[in-house]
UniProtKB/TrEMBL annotation, chain A:
Membrane-crossing segments per the record: 66-87, 99-119, 149-175, 187-206, 218-241, 261-282
Protein name: P-type ATPase C-terminal domain-containing protein
Domain of life of the native organism: Eukaryota
GO molecular function, one term: metal ion binding
Source organism (scientific name): Dissostichus mawsoni (Antarctic cod)
Annotated localization: Membrane
Topology term for the membrane: Multi-pass membrane protein
Main location: membrane
Ranges of residues in domain P-type ATPase C-terminal: 35-289
Alphabetical list of PANTHER family matching this protein: PHOSPHOLIPID-TRANSPORTING ATPASE IM-RELATED (PTHR24092:SF80), PROBABLE PHOSPHOLIPID-TRANSPORTING ATPASE (PTHR24092)
Cellular compartments per GO CC: plasma membrane; trans-Golgi network
UniProt keyword annotation of Magnesium present: yes
Keywords of this entry: Magnesium, Membrane, Metal-binding, Transmembrane, Transmembrane helix
From TrEMBL, chain B:
GO biological process, one term: phospholipid translocation
Organism expressing this protein natively: Dissostichus mawsoni
One Gene Ontology cellular component: plasma membrane
Membrane-crossing segments per the record: 33-54, 306-327
Record InterPro entries: CDC50/LEM3_fam (IPR005045)
Domain of life: Eukaryota
Family named by the database record: Belongs to the CDC50/LEM3 family.
Protein name: Cell cycle control protein
Alphabetically ordered keywords of this record: Membrane, Transmembrane, Transmembrane helix
PANTHER family: CELL CYCLE CONTROL PROTEIN 50, CELL CYCLE CONTROL PROTEIN 50B
Localisation: Membrane
Length: 367, 335
């Protein structure tokens, strides 16, 4: 969320949050004008805390993840044709079956990311309330900005190049086990399409932090539906009814029964997915953000955290947290414990820009 | 009291689904999972890579270019476009048994307009399409006299028509090696996708049509020796129609598995007589003849073996790097 505006007044209270672009009104003793002018309303001012810190934050996090993944999978899907252009005389010959192109975004890859957009939680709601600093990336536009978009594009382009060039190199000299031809357009298409669906499904699986029943159903279901539709459309029956519309008859059966084709698919999938895993593991170890630390700690036992006051300053002074040697500017160490969490947030908004610097802080007063 | 009732009426559902409280599995890619996972993947890939590499090494491929570009090539005389029905002779020796004879051509079968230039209805035996070929075949749908071409389209028109005869040279005498041309195309092509019109004799179905411009003989005369190998289900035609994905490709011509050569071609001297009909020099293509073996992973494919070895080693290396990083950053925290 880029900013949070609110007015405190005895007569009405209205808050607008610009990420979700909703207006919220709080109904009060003095009247209902704010309620009438807003998208959502509730009765007590304290409800605002949960709305912003939990749901607003989750909404921002989910939206950014969704955007990132959507751009990534479409770059990976489409740019294969860019690479293929160099090898087909730039004639715009498609790599994939026409039906696959139609169904990719609608059927094979739409539901897992939808489930992630609805249910994903990077930290639980209690932790979101206990550590209001987690709200900061939203205010500072950290989860999806030009840099993130560039990285997402880069990953999409490199995935597409691996998706094309590994099968290209393998199919240049491949024949079937009985010697007959296998490097034809249709087998090439099915191999790359299968690798693509597996890669993007594994990627959404790695990006989903909170696997509800719905997520499981959509992710595994999408993979199963892909193979079901693949074999159904390339069956003799469909070819018999609509001859010109299903020229890929028999391809899936012939190529997915060859060991060498599965070896190509396995190699492509692993090479596309594994570097991302290594990079994100190293990033969490070397440059952990507050979200990473909260996630790691909540997976350990709960004794590490005191719930006495429930504000973020407490975590910054705990012994179990690593004290960074980086200097902190404008840390809120000198201020007395604030009476309201809103004043704390305002102070932090004007404080250090780097989120991880939140961890450095003044020594505890209560310890 | 009124206010309370209004509140109850407007209260949203309090279910786990609507209140974002669904029970969930929250996997965490911790070091305990990622590092052993990388080691496992790395070792598995190295194992597969070794198996592929060793298998590929055991397969040998003999390739002989016969385009005839160089002056000292036996087929140089055939490379002249004006020479028709040229025959050239290659002499070579084989050191290990081989079972496959393939031809290799460098040409763009994946060009979009070329790829669309065929009529699937004609090729599945629909007689209506014989008299009215579809527009996608143009300009290879009607000849200059407005007669429909069957099979229409650029793909069929450009069918590869070099033929090969293989002789084994034993004590100076040439002995013909029998080549097996059955089943070189996909079963699905021969039995389902391409069908001859159900007219006997097949010749009658082609009345009032003409053969493709480039072909020496019409479709119903593609194989004089085997009546089941004519029309659209001719094996060589099917092999050609299975369009290649990449600009250079090798397709199966014959298998060498008959009679004395049930185990393939033994080592020795051989002579290959080529009826050089297919002109590739006008677009700077090349032609080669290839003798190869097969294995469980297909033909010789060094790329897969090497790629698996490289990826496996990189995974193991990454796991070591991650272990060092993890150990270095974890243990100072816990003192």
């Amino acid at each position: 969320m880029a900013y949070l505006k609110f007015q405190r007044s005895a007569i009405h209270s209205a808050v607008s949050s610009s990420a979700a672009h909703i207006g919220v009104g709080i109904s009060g003793q003095e009247g209902m004008q704010a309620v009438l002018a807003s998208d959502y309303s509730f009765a007590q001012f304290r409800y605002l805390r949960r709305l912003l810190l939990v749901h607003g934050r989750w909404s921002y996090f989910r939206m950014c993840n969704f955007l990132w993944y959507f751009f990534y999978k479409n770059f990976a899907f489409t740019l294969v044709h860019f690479w293929y252009g160099f090898f087909c005389g730039f004639s715009a010959q498609t790599v994939y079956d026409q039906w696959f192109i139609t169904l990719f975004n609608i059927v094979y890859t739409s539901l897992p990311v939808l489930a992630m957009g609805l249910f994903d939680q990077d930290v639980s709601d209690q932790n979101s309330l206990h550590y209001p600093s987690l709200y900061k990336p939203g205010q500072q536009n950290l989860f999806f900005n030009k840099r993130q978009f560039f990285l997402c594009t880069l990953q999409g382009v490199s995935t597409s190049s691996l998706l094309f060039f590994i099968p290209y190199a393998a199919f240049s000299v491949m024949v079937k086990e009985d010697g007959s031809y296998i490097s034809d357009q249709q087998v090439f298409a099915v191999t790359i399409a299968t690798s693509l669906v597996i890669v993007v499904t594994v990627q959404i699986g790695l990006d989903t932090h909170y696997w509800t029943v719905v997520n499981h159903f959509f992710v595994w279901g999408s993979l199963i539906v892909y193979f079901a539709i693949l074999f159904a459309m390339q069956s003799d029956g469909m070819f018999g009814i609509f001859t010109s519309s299903f020229p890929f008859v028999g391809t899936a059966r012939n190529c997915l029964s060859e060991k060498s084709v599965w070896l190509v698919i396995l190699l492509t999938s692993v090479v596309c997915v594994v570097p991302g895993m290594a990079v994100s593991f190293l990033r969490v170890e070397l440059f952990p953000t507050l979200t990473d630390k909260v996630q790691t700690s909540s997976h350990r036992s709960a004794y590490a955290f005191s719930h006495q006051q429930g504000y973020g300053e407490l975590i910054t002074s705990g012994k179990n947290m690593k004290m960074s040697t980086a200097s902190s500017t404008g840390s809120p160490g000198g201020t007395p414990q604030s009476s309201t969490w809103i004043e704390n947030m305002l102070k932090r908004k004007n404080a250090v820009s780097c989120v991880s610097d939140e961890i450095t802080g003044a020594p505890a007063k209560t310890d | 009291m009124v206010k309370e009732e209004k509140e109850i009426a407007n209260r949203p559902d309090n279910t786990a689904f609507t209140q974002q409280r669904l029970p969930a599995w929250q996997p965490m890619l911790s070091a305990g999972i990622v590092i052993p996972g990388f080691v496992l993947i790395g070792l598995a890939f190295i194992g597969i890579g070794v198996a592929l590499f060793v298998t590929s090494r055991s397969i040998t491929v003999l390739e002989i270019d016969y385009t005839g570009v160089e002056k000292d090539s036996p087929c140089y005389k055939c490379s002249d476009a004006d020479v028709k029905n040229c025959v050239c002779n290659l002499v070579f020796s084989i050191d290990r048994t081989r079972v496959l004879l393939l031809w290799f051509v460098k040409l763009f079968q994946n060009y979009r307009k070329y790829a669309a230039s065929k009529d699937d209805d004609q090729l599945s035996g629909d007689l209506d399409a014989f008299t009215a070929p579809s527009d996608s075949c143009s300009p290879y749908d009607y000849n200059s006299n407005d007669k429909p071409i069957v099979p229409c389209g650029a793909i069929a028109n450009s069918m590869f028509n070099d033929t090969f005869k293989l002789y084994r040279v034993v004590n100076g005498a040439k002995k013909l090696v029998p080549l097996d041309g059955k089943g070189i195309a996909w079963w699905i092509d021969y039995n389902v996708k391409y069908r001859n019109p159900s007219v006997t004799p097949l010749k009658n179905a082609f009345n009032n049509t003409v053969k493709p411009i480039f072909w020496p003989k019409p479709a119903y005369q593609l194989d004089a020796s085997d009546p089941a190998n004519n029309g659209f289900i001719n094996q060589d035609f099917l092999v050609w129609m299975r369009r290649a994905a990449l600009p250079d490709f090798r397709k199966l011509y014959r298998r060498i598995t008959e009679g004395d050569y049930a185990k393939g071609l033994p080592a020795g001297n051989y002579s290959l007589t080529i009826a050089y009909n297919y002109p590739v020099l006008s677009f700077e293509g090349t032609k080669k003849v290839v003798f190869s073996n097969v294995s469980w992973m297909g033909g010789k494919n060094e790329f897969l073996g090497i790629a698996y070895l490289v990826v496996g080693s990189l995974c193991v290396l990454m796991s070591i790097v991650m272990l060092i990083v993890y150990a270095k950053f974890k243990f100072p925290e816990e003192d």
